Amino acid sequence: MELWQGLDVEEKDLKSFVKRCNSATTLIPGPTGNVQAAMINRDKEHVQSTQEFARDIASATYERDFKSNPWLWAEQFIKFHGLLKEGKIANATQLASCKCTSILPFVACIVKQCKPNGLGDMQISIKDTSATVWASVHRKVLLNPKFEQDLTVGAVLLLHTVVAFSPRPRLCYVNITVRNIVKILKADICQPTDELIHATLKPDIVLLPCMDPKIDELLRKLVKPSIVTNKTKHGQGSSGSDGASSSTKGAQTTDE
Fold it and tell me: Quick one: where's region Disordered (predicted)?
């Protein structure tokens, strides 16, 4: 009997372990991912349909990315400090929207790839629940002691007021500078706890008005322009009438 056969391991635990190991495979977005899934599936002992295999890989990848410790940290960090409306990470700007807008107010994403571009900057692939896009990271971010060690594959980035550009309809890039970074949650961070979250400092950022969590309260305090205009006109009319009355009284007094 082999040594591993003597281990007391539940079958469900073994399946969960195998699933986590298999989730290391990430499919390339788009049609290329279908070809990749077919090639990987062909090497398996028990071949599945390509569609079924791709769904399994996507499900395992989602679990690995969006149930990881960095992502859980991001969810609780945003909720505790009220960085987004209702404190929900789901209200962050989706990367898929970069194809139709030039500014992304607040982004929460996970780093999937990192590669230097040979000019001192770095190209990274970032992903959220809506899309995967490429980003250019300015060299000052890489030289900053606060960020240089944490910007790795698997880290979660919280960004604000990010510039995006789309040279072609199906292609989008975002530009990341030091000013855009709210927080980087490193890939090997521990599991979040209330004590650890409460010990963090609230980042000092200025959000665009549309992303301010208190936008509804601020809008309720605004006075309708029509009301201000009417009040102004009414005041001018009264003063005019008063002026005319005063002039008339003055003329009468002179005549007397």
Answer: 230-256
Q: Are residues 179 and 102 in the same domain?
A: yes
* Residue that is written with structure tokens 């505790």 in the block: 80
How many distinct structural domains can be found in the chain?
2
Q: List beta partners, residue 100.
A: none
**Do the domain assignments include residue 55?**
yes
- Residue 160 lies in domain: 89-205
Instruction: Give the start-end residues of each E strand in the chain.
Output: 103-116, 122-127, 132-137, 156-168, 171-176, 181-185
Residue 71 belongs to a domain: no
Please list the ranges in the chain whose pLDDT falls under 70.
Answer: 1-51, 53-54, 56-58, 169, 206-216, 218, 223-256
**66-99 pLDDT tens trace:** 999 999 999 999 999 999 989 999 999 999 888 7
CA–CA distance, 178 with 85 (Å, rounded to integer): 24
